[in-house]
Write a structure and sequence with these properties.
By secondary structure, the chain is an alpha/beta fold. It has five domains: 2-214, no CATH class; 263-498, no CATH class; 523-605, Threonyl-tRNA Synthetase, Chain A, domain 2 (2-Layer Sandwich); 612-736 and 764-890, P-loop containing nucleotide triphosphate hydrolases (Rossmann fold); 913-988, Arc Repressor Mutant, subunit A, CATH 1.10.10. Helices cover 59% and strands 8% of the residues. It contains 37 helices and 14 strands. The strands form two sheets. Strands 5, 6, 7, 8, 9, 10, 11, 12, 13 and 14 form a ten-stranded mixed beta sheet that branches. The longest helix has 66 residues, at 216-281. Residues 611, 657, 659-665, 807, 851-852, 869-871 line the site of adenosine-5'-triphosphate. Belongs to the FtsK/SpoIIIE/SftA family. Residues 232-277 form a coiled coil.
């Protein structure tokens, strides 16, 4: 300020002198004319000087007034330009604004400010050379900025004419205008694009230096020194922290070692105790494999059992009353489970530790296998054995997958390793026990070697504890023994159930890939050009429209056209093919009109289709702050806005689309959204994947109630379980006088402080996900449809939600009933309008581009919205699942549900029969032949079944040739004799 004031004074002084100098000759003349000729010139000069002194204040005042008026005029002009730039200036204002934009381009927005302040500055520093220099620098800056904008927005196009720059900028209020364009035209051909950028940026920097009178390099020097100092301090701080961390790690390591030592000692003690007990109580029938060494004592035992001596057969392991043997074996079994989960390194650790356990000499015989074979092989065999049992497959089946220490596959890739956790509970349950253990037991290990066999025998024996069939087979194990063993196992399971569940560790967002930055190409210009082309094309066909808005989404861009008065919307729709041709677009979709807008939307695919990575959506505030645990990050809509929705409000979702259109990826994004948002205590999942390969990767996550169901028959059972659970929940709601899950959980929350073992627990929301309904509908159409409909009608309030995907949107898969009960739909690309109508009751999905391009039509939307679905790759899913399985301990699958589902499955197997004929088929056939009369009503009455089932039996009998086809109102003919029918049953049923 002081400098400026000084400048002002000196300028004023100089101005005054100059004015005096200029005016001196004139006054001299005047004075000379007036005075007598004889007077001397000196006298004249003196007088002139005297008169000048008198006029000086007056002249100064004149100049000031002139300057002030000029300043006011410039202020008014600047304001007019400013308001005109924003479209409030009337027609004259528009013309001025067009001119300014045409001249300077985007920079014209700054023009009014620059104009006013520069003029004000120049006037107040009149005659000051530096002031003029600064003013010039401001304009230089303005011009360089215009040219830089021109290069950024429009790149350089040598074919453009000079007036094109003016016209483009004045029309669209962007670019660099005529001046920017001229500069580009001058620099670009001569120096190339980069050279032009360099020159213009340097010019702009020079202007800044001139204006501010400050050196950029000096600043850089000071900041470099600062950065150096802070880096030095940081390094010292980091060193200190590292030292502390090292110390802590060392302490932790020592603690761990100590713990391991104690545990090993305990294990050893238990083991010894166990062996002693076995000796004391004369263990009977442990292993029937006579190939194991040290036959002496054991062989006697085998004789005691009296089982066949085939090496392949394995018999029951009798557990001693109250003895610690079961928990011990349990412990080993669990350790092996954990080993499998934690990978090869842990397996090796365990090997070392296991080998360090000392075994008493008298037990050597039983444990010979451990020493005979290579220890790593043993563990591989152990792992493979556990897997065989858990999966219920034969030893041969699983032998191939016995993981070698070096090439143990990651958990999430190997389905055989994914389900170990749910094997644990099977001890309690005779039904599932059979399913899981019976096979390996009956077949016996074939290729696993002695070690494998022994281990299978031991673990298998434990599993058999409650198996009623085995009870009969083993005359030695008394009732009391069995009860005791049952009690001990039950106690153990109860204990494990009562363990405090660890808190859910949410997967870190870093497990998902970072979104790639898209290069800032000339998208805006392209869009504008397409808009003009679109307008022009329609105009050529006599349809006048204006493009009122353009929304550019990740995959498609929507041009909103406002038709002129009197233009029929149908005319635009009819021109779809011509528009497609003129825009050279693969396909376009016309939304006429856009709901809630007086415009027609034309959706044109983008040249570059950008995927929407899931991480980008999960990182947004919309998702993070979404109130529901069942948040689903759908994708981005046509305007690039993030779409997040609540699955609970859908409340059931149908996803359909052709193969490869993105359904599985969509289901993956749903599941991943849930994993990133919800605690397994609040949300549980049941996944049904008849395709086997799509969802099995999720085995092991803590949200799963049961392992992913891949058998279509079991899937029907899972849906039935859903119905049963729903009914049970409604009963609970009625008991507590609440209307829905939220109310129920609120009530439970209120009584959480009451100490009562039997108090009800909080119920989680359940999401049942089916990837490929068509496969289920093929296996059990009636049952699946019934369950889906029942669930869809009632399950919302019970907190059970269905998500069903199918690639066959035909009416026999998505039946009218299913459709009516699934209010929210997502349609991916399909091949025909008919398919589209099956999914969303309207055309449109056949125009989608595939790869996640969807029509999102949840309950409450008036029309489907076009959304580009989020993308998550298999490797990202794998990483998250691996993280969850590792960090959230062993998954406790629900035995109860497994049991119920397998019961339903068994029942279905029994009633359904192997060849899918009804259970009453044979009886009904015999009855009809006996009565020589085939009528559905009669079957209904005799077998007390419903019309549908009776009609189905009749159809089956007709297919089998027992009765003839329908003959209108007449009864069907009976075509087979009793003998023929019996023969048929023997052969085919
Ligand atoms: N949202 C998306 N963004 C980008 N690409 C996607 C998206 N969704 C799917 N894709 C691409 O499409 C391919 C097929 O997707 P997906 O496997 O989900 O199809 P699908 O409909 O499940 O097929 P199918 O019924 O045969 O299993 C994916 O491999 C992926 O490359």
């Amino acid at each position: 300020m002081a400098v400026e004031a000084k400048g002002n004074n000196s300028t004023a002084r100089k101005t005054a002198t100059k004015t005096a100098e200029k005016k001196a000759p004139t006054s001299k003349k005047t004075t000379a004319a007036k005075s007598s000729a004889g007077r001397k010139s000196q006298t004249g000069t003196r007088k002139a000087a005297a008169s000048n002194r008198g006029r000086k204040p007056a002249a100064k005042k004149d100049t000031m007034l002139r300057d002030e008026i000029l300043l006011w005029v410039v202020l008014a002009a600047s304001i007019i330009i400013l308001i005109s730039n924003f479209g409030f200036g009337g027609f004259a204002g528009d013309a001025i604004s067009d001119f300014c934009f045409g001249l300077f381009g985007f920079v014209a927005y700054l023009l009014p400010f620059v104009l006013f302040f520069t003029v004000a500055f120049a006037l107040s520093n009149k005659g000051n050379r530096i002031a003029w220099l600064k003013t010039g620098a401001v304009f230089l800056l303005l011009i360089s900025c215009s040219a830089i904008f021109e290069l950024i927005v429009n790149k350089f196009d040598g074919t453009r004419k000079i007036m094109d720059f003016y016209n483009m900028s004045s029309q669209y209020k962007t670019g660099g205008g005529l001046i920017g364009g001229l500069l580009c035209k001058a620099f670009c051909p001569a120096l190339g694009l980069v050279g032009a950028y360099v020159i213009l940026v340097v010019l702009a920097l020079i202007s800044v230096v001139l204006i501010t009178e400050r050196s950029l390099f000096a600043k850089m020097h000071t900041s470099t020194t600062k950065v150096y100092d802070s880096a030095k301090k940081d390094a010292a701080r980091r060193k200190e922290k590292a030292a502390i961390r090292r110390e802590e790690a060392e302490l932790k390591r020592q603690k761990r070692l100590e713990e391991d030592r104690i545990r090993l000692e305990q294990e050893k003690a238990n083991f010894e105790k166990f062996q002693e007990l076995r000796l004391d109580k004369k263990v009977t029938g442990v292993i029937l494999d006579t190939s194991i060494k040290d036959g002496g004592r054991k062989k006697e035992d085998l004789h005691e059992v009296g089982a066949p001596s085939s090496g392949a057969k394995i018999e029951e392991f009798p557990v001693q009353e109250g003895g610690p043997s079961i928990p011990d074996i349990f412990g080993i079994y669990k350790a092996e489970e954990i080993m499998k989960k934690k990978g090869t390194k842990k397996v090796r650790d365990f090997q070392t530790k296991a080998s360090s356990v000392k075994v008493p000499d008298e037990l050597r015989g039983e444990l010979d296998w451990q020493e005979e074979t290579d220890s790593s092989m043993d563990l591989a065999a152990i792992a493979s054995e556990i897997k065989i049992e858990g999966l219920g497959g034969s030893a041969e089946d699983s032998a191939y997958s016995a993981p070698q220490p070096d090439e143990q596959p990651p958990l999430f890739e190997e389905p055989a390793f994914k389900e170990p956790a749910y094997k644990e509970p099977v001890f309690k349950d005779p039904v599932s026990e059979e399913g899981i253990f019976a096979e390996p037991l009956s077949e016996g290990p074939a290729g696993g070697g002695k070690a494998a066999r022994t281990d299978a025998a031991e673990t298998g024996a434990v599993s058999e504890m409650k198996n009623p069939r085995r009870e009969k087979a083993n005359p030695k194990s008394s009732r009391a023994e069995q009860e005791a063993e049952l009690a001990s196992v039950e106690a153990e399971i109860l204990e494990s159930e009562q363990e405090v569940k660890p808190e859910y560790v949410f997967p870190p967002i870093d497990l998902l890939k970072k979104p790639r930055r898209t290069k800032g190409s000339n998208i805006e210009r392209e869009l504008r050009e397409t808009a003009v082309k679109l307008q022009q094309t329609l105009h050529n066909f006599g349809v006048n429209v204006t493009v009122s808005n353009v929304s550019c989404g990740p995959a498609v861009t929507r041009y909103e056209l406002t038709p002129e008065q009197g233009v029929k919307v149908s005319r635009i729709v009819n021109l779809a093919d011509d528009i497609k041709l003129n825009l050279a677009a693969a396909d376009i979709r016309i939304e006429a009109p856009i709901p809630g807008k007086a415009a027609v939307g034309i959706e044109v695919p983008n040249h570059e289709n950008t995927a929407v990575p899931l991480r980008e959506l999960l990182d947004t505030d919309e998702f993070k702050n979404f109130p529901s645990s069942l948040a689903f990050a759908v994708g981005k809509d046509i305007g690039g806005k993030v779409v997040v929705t609540d699955i609970a409000k859908m409340p059931h979702l149908l996803i359909a689309g052709a193969t490869g259109s993105g359904k599985s990826v969509c289901i993956n994004t749903i599941i991943m959204s849930i994993l990133y948002k919800a605690d397994p205590e609040d949300v549980k999942l049941i996944m049904i994947d008849p395709k086997v390969v799509e969802l099995s990767v999720y085995n092991g996550i803590p949200h799963l109630f049961i392992p992913v169901v891949t058998d279509p028959k079991k899937a029907a059972g899972a849906l039935n379980w859903g119905v049963a659970e729903m009914t049970e929940r409604y009963q609970k709601f009625a008991e507590y006088n609440v209307r829905d899950l939220k109310g129920y959980n609120a009530k439970i929350e209120a009584i959480k402080d009451i100490e009562d073992e039997n108090k009800p627990k909080k119920l989680p929301q359940i999401v049942i996900i089916v990837d490929e309904l068509a496969d289920l509908m093929m296996v059990a159409p009636g049952e699946v449809e019934d369950s889906i409909c029942r669930l869809a009608q009632l399950a919302r309030a019970a907190g059970i939600h269905l998500i069903i995907a199918t690639q066959r949107p035909s009416v026999n898969v998505i039946t009218g009933l299913i459709k009516a009960n699934m209010p929210s739909r997502i349609a991916f690309s399909v091949s025909s309008g008919v398919d589209s109508r099956t999914i969303i009751d309207m055309n449109g999905a056949e125009k989608l581009l595939g790869k996640g391009d969807m029509l999102f039509y949840p309950q409450g939307y008036q029309k489907p919205a076009r959304v580009q679905g989020a993308f998550v790759s298999d490797s990202e899913v794998g990483a998250v699942v691996e993280f969850l399985t590792q960090k959230n301990d062993i998954t406790a699958y629900s035995r109860e549900i497994e049991e119920q589902i397998s019961k339903v499955q068994q029942a279905a197997d029994q009633t359904g029969g192997s060849s899918e004929v009804d259970a009453y088929f044979a009886e009904a056939g015999k009855f009809i032949i006996e009565k020589d009369k085939a009528s559905i009503g009669m079957l209904q009455r005799v077998f007390k079944i419903g019309f549908n089932r009776a009609a189905r039996i009749m159809d089956q009998l007709s297919d089998a040739g027992v009765v003839g086809p329908e003959e209108g109102t007449k009864p069907r003919k009976v075509l087979m004799s009793q003998e023929e029918f019996e023969q048929y049953i023997e052969e085919y049923v």
